[in-house]
Amino acid sequence: MSEKVDEKSVERVASIDEKYVVHDDPNDPNALVEGSEGVTKHELDTLRHVADKFPYAAWLIVIVELAERWTYYGTANIFNNYIRGPLPPGSTNGAVVFDEDRAGGIAGALDRGQTVSFAIRTFNTFFVYVTPFLGAIIADTMWGRYKTILVFSIICLAGHVVLVGSASPSAIANGDVAFGLLIVSIVIIAIGAGSIKANVSPMIAEQYTGKLRKNTLKSGETVIISPAVTIQSVYLWFYAAINLGSCGAISASFLARDHGYWIAWLVPTGIFVLVPGVLFFGRKAYVTTPPRGSIILETARVIRYALGPAWSINPAQTIRNIRAPGFWDPAKPSTYSAGQAPSGITWDEEFVGEVARTCNACAVFCFLPFFWLCYSQIDGNLGTTAAGMTLNGSPNDLIQNLNPIGIIVMVPIFDFLIYPFLRRRGINFSPIKRMYAGFLVAGLAMVYASVLQHYINQSSPCQDNEPSACETERGTPNPSPLNVWIVSGPYLLVGMSEIFTSITSLEYAYTKAPARMKSVVMSFSQFQVAISAAINLALTAVNAEVHFVWLYGSFAIVAWVIGTIFFITFRGLDRRENSLNSIGKGDRAGFADEQSHAVTEKS
């Protein structure tokens, strides 16, 4: 929402100067930008870009996302203690029964240990980020995005009801029953939440239908009203809603500790009722897209035709062929003489260009699992780190809420101050640079966590032997004297890295994906979290407290190395950001080659 243009304080440029004509040469500075309302290439490159106003329907979807994420994080963020820890003395529902000897007590229930807790939480993350493909396919082939979100919100609500039942005292009394119902609820919630996730992100951006245009401010300055900047701002505030919702875990931590887990999960379940409610309330306001039919098989065939001539026994030659300007030509109908095209080519030139853009966007996302490895540490392992510190009445799983709180505070700072300041100074902090910055900051967060864990181990009465489980001879907690709030550093740093990398990946998925493939590309972007979770599952044996120092440090090195490779690989796309954003926005096919070659320019 940075630098929003109030229609009452802005005079719209209503006419196009007659000297501006559409040229075939996109390098001509007086050529109109494809799909714009009278903006020339020269103006696009020289005038300041600002964001447009958000439509009302977009804010309704923000509310939907806030309620859905409140419910998800208000349940998932307290899984660690619930699975890992035993029932506190005298408790039947996981709550701590306080007396003077148990002031530092930690809620728990199933007593399955850190490794099992890590495996279940990682499986939950994996499944939540695999199921977006299900929602994307159903939306594209059957129901459209709106109906898909509505139907799967009902399914998700049913999963939360099962979760509440799994934590009842009678279920916890039989640990196997509670554990089995927990797994069932995780599967149901993942199907619902993942299918919603695939569609709500593109749906919010679809509510904005403005075009690239010029406006004159009261100050006399002519600016570019930029859809790209607007979408960047939309996703900043969309992500703020996600993190405001995830603050629901603050109340969940206290509810679990003081009243038990079934109460802690009943509250967010009630909040989730807002999701179908707000969706139904705004049904006449939304910009909706009908199902367009499945294009996944056709996309695979286009890639197969293009890859056929590119294969070589020499891998380096294969890579060179893929990067060659004519890589997509074998899949284009125009490559063949009339009547000579293979029978399998049933598409037009434009579809080949769309597939090229899709591959281009998806290739960028392939590096993100290594970013999400760093993020995954704040989802549980750092909570265990906090459990070995002096709590002073704070639940150990409360601290992780500093991550969303930090993001909520930082989003307005970036949207109103930092990003506009950079644009005014002509600094092009474009998507690839922002995502690279996220890798660097995430690595810094892991260095902080590694150093902190070292000092906890050294100062704990139990030394390196699981400080979180250290007890006195009387069975009361005996933590490190370090105050638990020192662990806030990694949470805040990871939050900043999310603003750079995660938010930008949502923006990139939407702006670079063709209209017919937005749900699929968004799902592929989110699937990288699932890949990260799968890597984490393979690392289950080292996700133990005794290995945390080296685990955090290793993830820092991985983030910096992979992030640097990412930037070197894709820095060429940043130089072509404006041209990539204008592809497919107009009626002419003159820029078709821009689409088809976008995937080849990565250096």
UniProtKB/TrEMBL annotation:
<feature type="transmembrane region" description="Helical">
    <location>
        <begin position="548"/>
        <end position="570"/>
    </location>
</feature>
<dbReference type="GO" id="GO:0022857">
    <property type="term" value="F:transmembrane transporter activity"/>
</dbReference>
<feature type="transmembrane region" description="Helical">
    <location>
        <begin position="262"/>
        <end position="282"/>
    </location>
</feature>
<feature type="transmembrane region" description="Helical">
    <location>
        <begin position="434"/>
        <end position="456"/>
    </location>
</feature>
<dbReference type="GO" id="GO:0016020">
    <property type="term" value="C:membrane"/>
</dbReference>
<dbReference type="GO" id="GO:0006857">
    <property type="term" value="P:oligopeptide transport"/>
</dbReference>
<keyword id="KW-0812">Transmembrane</keyword>
<feature type="transmembrane region" description="Helical">
    <location>
        <begin position="150"/>
        <end position="172"/>
    </location>
</feature>
<feature type="transmembrane region" description="Helical">
    <location>
        <begin position="484"/>
        <end position="508"/>
    </location>
</feature>
<feature type="transmembrane region" description="Helical">
    <location>
        <begin position="234"/>
        <end position="256"/>
    </location>
</feature>
<feature type="transmembrane region" description="Helical">
    <location>
        <begin position="126"/>
        <end position="143"/>
    </location>
</feature>
<dbReference type="InterPro" id="IPR018456">
    <property type="entry name" value="PTR2_symporter_CS"/>
</dbReference>
<feature type="transmembrane region" description="Helical">
    <location>
        <begin position="398"/>
        <end position="422"/>
    </location>
</feature>
<dbReference type="Pfam" id="PF00854">
    <property type="entry name" value="PTR2"/>
</dbReference>
<feature type="transmembrane region" description="Helical">
    <location>
        <begin position="359"/>
        <end position="378"/>
    </location>
</feature>
<feature type="transmembrane region" description="Helical">
    <location>
        <begin position="520"/>
        <end position="542"/>
    </location>
</feature>
<feature type="transmembrane region" description="Helical">
    <location>
        <begin position="178"/>
        <end position="196"/>
    </location>
</feature>
<keyword id="KW-0472">Membrane</keyword>
<protein>
    <submittedName>
        <fullName>Peptide transporter PTR2B</fullName>
    </submittedName>
</protein>
<dbReference type="InterPro" id="IPR000109">
    <property type="entry name" value="POT_fam"/>
</dbReference>
<keyword id="KW-1133">Transmembrane helix</keyword>
<comment type="similarity">
    <text>Belongs to the major facilitator superfamily. Proton-dependent oligopeptide transporter (POT/PTR) (TC 2.A.17) family.</text>
</comment>
<dbReference type="InterPro" id="IPR036259">
    <property type="entry name" value="MFS_trans_sf"/>
</dbReference>
